[in-house]
């Protein structure tokens, strides 16, 4: 598998010079062409598609969605992935936040299609452990990683808007729109995505209890191959394939996103309340 020359990747000035230099210095310190294989950081000047509305026109009707849903209902997760890649419209993309159980979907999907584009939104607020986890899994699984980020740096955002995550539910929503939703919509457009695979599971939150195997999101088809998996299923898969949890699992985190809006699971709170202070469960990508 071809290695990318990470030092030749272009960086937008609005990502922040400090971030650019830190990343490049880390790659050089690692020796190299970079731990991440076949990876890229978004350096395009793609126009933003905004926060609302379809990214593409979807001609797939409800009857077809129902047929796909029925076909996949009795399948094992890897069979579902294979079915999606063979039957649902391409271009196919998998999104990952490289969270606590991210290794499951990344391994599951790349066993079927090793070169599928893997989309990560680097909000600028990820934990240091997450960045190291990204490099570990990218190197181990040979991921075709594509990293997109917000148009402005964390320093710029906080200078102009303050700490949005401290400004109640509306502030949390605005924060997620800026650092997650807009970059994700821009990334999916840039990659030409038509079918988007995601690792959502119903057991993770009450807001996901009715989430189907396949649905529409922003005009794309969005598929959740492990939607009906339990925590036990996840643990069994990781152990069977000798795959790691995110490092913060050992410190009590059951869900990890941005450091200002993630906390460990402690007595008296539900798993879904460990994100966004219980003000929201979803970051805007899956609603």
Query: Can you tell me the CATH topology?
Result: Rossmann fold
Find the count of extended strands (DSSP E, 2+ residues): 7
Principal-axes shape call: globular
Q: Helix/strand/pairing class, anyone?
A: alpha/beta
List the secondary-structure elements in sequence, H or E. HEHHEHEHEHHEEEH
In whole angstroms, the N-to-C terminal distance is 36 Å
**What's the overall average pLDDT, rounded?**
81
Report strand %: 5-15%
* Oligomeric assembly: single chain
Instruction: From the alpha carbons, calculate the radius of gyration and give it in angstroms.
Output: 18 Å
The major β-sheet equals: 7 strands, mixed
What does this structure look like?
The longest helix has 23 residues, at 168-190. The protein starts with 16 loop residues before the first helix and ends in a 47-residue tail after the last helix. It is an alpha/beta fold. Residues 1-40 have low confidence and may be disordered. The chain is built from 8 helices and 7 strands, in the order αβααβαβαβααβββα. The chain has a 7-stranded mixed sheet.
């Amino acid at each position: 598998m071809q290695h990318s020359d990470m030092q030749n990747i272009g960086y937008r000035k609005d990502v922040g010079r400090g971030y650019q230099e830190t990343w490049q210095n880390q790659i050089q310190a690692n020796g190299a062409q970079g731990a991440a294989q076949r990876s890229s950081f978004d350096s395009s000047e793609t126009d933003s598609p905004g926060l609302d509305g379809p990214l593409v026109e979807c001609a797939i009707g409800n009857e077809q969605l129902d047929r796909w849903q029925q076909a996949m209902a009795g399948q094992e997760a890897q069979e579902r992935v294979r079915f999606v890649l063979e039957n649902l419209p391409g271009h196919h993309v998998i999104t990952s936040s490289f969270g606590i159980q991210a290794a499951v979907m990344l391994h599951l999907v790349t066993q079927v299609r090793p070169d599928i584009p893997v989309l990560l939104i680097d909000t600028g607020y990820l934990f240091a452990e997450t960045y190291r986890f990204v490099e570990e899994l990218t190197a181990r699984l040979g991921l075709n990683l594509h990293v997109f980020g917000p148009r402005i740096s964390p320093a710029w955002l906080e200078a102009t808007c303050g700490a949005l995550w401290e400004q109640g539910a509306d502030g949390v929503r605005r924060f997620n729109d800026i650092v997650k939703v807009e970059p994700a919509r821009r990334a999916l457009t840039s990659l030409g995505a038509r079918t988007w695979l995601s690792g959502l599971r119903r057991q993770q939150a009450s807001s996901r209890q009715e989430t189907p195997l396949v649905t529409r999101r922003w005009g794309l088809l969005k598929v959740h191959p492990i939607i009906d998996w339990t925590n036990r299923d996840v643990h069994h898969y990781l152990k069977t394939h000798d795959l790691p949890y995110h490092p913060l699992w050992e410190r009590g985190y059951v869900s990890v996103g941005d450091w200002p809006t993630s906390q460990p699971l402690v007595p008296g709170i539900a798993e879904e309340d460990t994100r966004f202070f219980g003000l929201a469960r979803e970051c805007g990508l899956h609603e």
